[in-house]
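The methods section describes the discrete structure representation at length, but only in general terms. Since the whole study asks how a given chain folds, the encoding of that fold should be made plain. An entry of this sort, consisting of the sequence and the corresponding backbone structure tokens, reads as follows:

. . .
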Amino acid sequence: MRSRVEADLLAMTIGLALGWLAFSLIVFAYGEAPVSMAGQLWSGTWGTAYGAGQVLFKATPILFSGIAVQLALRVGLFNIGAEGQMAVASLAVASVGAHLGPTMPGFVALPLLLLVAASAGALWALGPALLRARLGAHEVISTIMTNRIADALISLLLGLGLAQKGTVRTPDVAPGARMRRLGDWVSSLQGSAANTSIFVALLALLMAAFLWPRTRAGREQLLVGQNPDACRAEGIPVARRLTQALVLSGAVAGLASSATVLGYKGYYEQGLGAGAGFTGLAVALLGRGRASGMVFAALLFGTLDQGGLALNATIPREAMQIVQAVVMLAVALSDERVRAWIIKVPALLSKEKVTA
């Protein structure tokens, strides 16, 4: 039997190999050479300081999302709702930030808005968490539903007055609430959207990977993920740990708004940060729960996202989204937890029909 490390390396290799194959086929279809296009992709991303800064920016919300998904995976839950949690938190942060006074100092405004972001994401995850812990409703179904509800709710609230008249964006947040651009300190990164939210993401990753598992709640969540029935027999509050894990996952997903709203735009507009929540699932699976692996995965998808813009003159940007989707699908299917869930899908659907 292969060791876990060997299995993880095999899954990563398969995902990257299939991604390269998809990239090559798409490039061939447009009459270009894969090696030449790969060189252009590198030049438009890591080949320049600006490109590298853009990769770092695009990787930041993806990393937040990956951490969020991984926190839920530890207890055997699939948080497919990170997309909605990020969107709701972004609107909340932008709305509160726009009402802060222009003279409010950053050491007050930023912690306050980070707390708002985490609280909004956690609150949006609370419903699916309680449904899963109390009623046994599968979190995949409930979190997908909350994503759709989030889309509708955000459109409604923007239309009711949170957006500036005639637009789909909120007013600007207070100047003291903005995250600093990395270009303010590193001149070569000037012009890129990379900002200090990346340090918040790395801090969240360190806490999730090394500190939280050493707490009592963190240890019990790991045990619940391995065998919830045995944990119940030992008196571990399984329902509470499931709820805590999904709510904490939502809180971390909400913090992604620090990169997009506070670090990039300075306001929220409909669709800002879309896609990062779903990519986080691939980051968590490709990273295999390791901090270094998740950083690598986030940078990989950030590179592909920015690479789509670098190659857009020759190959449509959507082509790189296909490559990302292939990598995500390959990595997901190589994970035994995903395969186990897929096997359960027919039983879940039949159970829903009987209940209805």
